[in-house]
What we know:
Blueprint: H1 3-37, H2 45-69, H3 74-96, H4 102-110, H5 112-127
Amino acid sequence: MSFKRFAWLILGSLLAMGAAVLALISVNLIGGTLAPWLGFPAGGTGRLAWDLAWTIAGGTAAIAAATCCAPAAPRRHALACFAALLLAAVYAVTQLGGDFPRWFCIGLLLSLPLQGWLGATWALKLKYRRQPSQDSA
C-alpha cells in the first residue's frame, strides 16, 4: 500500500469518527430541544426516560455514521465507535451514577449492544444496498 493511500485511509477514518461524534451530538441536541416543546418538565422520571431514549438514538446514529462513512473496514469502525461509547457510558455511570436513578444507569449500559447492532446493521444495509438487476428480460 502506498503512503498516499495509507494517508487517505487514516484521514477518512478520522473523518468517519468525527461524523460519529457529530451525529451523537446532533441527535442528543434535537432530543433536548424537542422535550420542552412537547411539555416535558426540566426534571423528573418522564424527562429522564425521554433523555435515555434520545441517548440510545444518538448512540445508534453515531455507530451508523462511523460505519457508513468508513473508507474501509466499516465493521471495525463500528466496533471502535461502540468501544468509545462503552467507555463513555461506564465512565458516566461510575462518576455520575449516584445522581441518576438506578434504572437510568442500567438502561444506559444494557442498551449499548442494541445500539451497536442496530447502528451497524442499518449502516451496512445502506452502504451495501443491492442495485436492481438489469439482466431481467
